Amino acid sequence: ALGLLGLMVSAQVCLTASEYWLGYWSGLDPDVQSSKRHYLYIYVGIVAGTVCLTISRAVTSFLVLLGGALELHNGAFKGVLYASMRFFESNPTGYLFSFFFFFFGTDYNKKQTFLFPNICIFVHVSNCFTLIVHPVLVIDSAGRILNRFSKDQWVVDEMLPYVTYDAIQS
After folding, report:
1. Is 52 helix (H, G, I), strand (E, B) or coil?
2. CB neighbours of 4 closer than 8 A, spacing ≥ 6?
3. Whole-number Cα distances in Å, 95 to 80, 91, 98, 109, 146
4. CB–CB of 108/101 below 8 Å?
5. What distance in Å separates the CA atoms of residue 16 and residue 31, rounded to the nearest whole number?
């Protein structure tokens, strides 16, 4: 966590240094600006350092957050798997789980065999829904952009109807 904080601070310092160096360089005489190339090399070095630190900061924060989420998920999953039946009978959510286990004829000791197929079905249905809805959203967005462009260009006839759904339905 301290390494991540150090990366964040150093990336911000590099970004500020690049802005400062660009301001310093542009404030010099035009003859000095164009005659000496080391100003450009210093600026490119600072920008390259900023890019490297920003990428490493993103990767490090992803790995730290992924590790924390994994620990949290494993702890919660272990707590549900090793919970006693008393919890499922006294807690309203646990009561619903035990009702569904009883309704589908699933053994209490095999909770994961009941949940896994249903989770898979949910993931597949949501993926199919995304594949159906996503092209419609892209077409609608493109239609709105083209309409806006045609209005900005003072074109009298419109390139596309106001809403692409009207064209699809007719």
Report:
1. helix
2. 57, 60, 61, 64
3. 13, 6, 5, 15, 54
4. yes
5. 26
Encode pLDDT of 136-167 as tens digits.
565 655 666 655 555 555 544 444 445 555 55
Residue 1 class from Cβ within 10 Å (0-12 exposed, 13-18 middle, 19+ buried)?
exposed
CA distance 5 to 88: 42
Question: In the structure encoding, which two tokens stand for residue 157, read together?
Answer: 């006839």
Q: How many domains does the chain have?
A: 2
Task: Output the six-digit token pair for 136.
Answer: 């419609």
What's the average model confidence in pLDDT over 75-92?
76
In a domain, 160, yes or no: yes
Residue 158 tokens, joined = 């419109």
Provide the 10 A C-beta neighbour count for residue 50. Answer: 20
pTM: 0.47
Question: Which domain, by its residues, includes 23?
Answer: 1-82
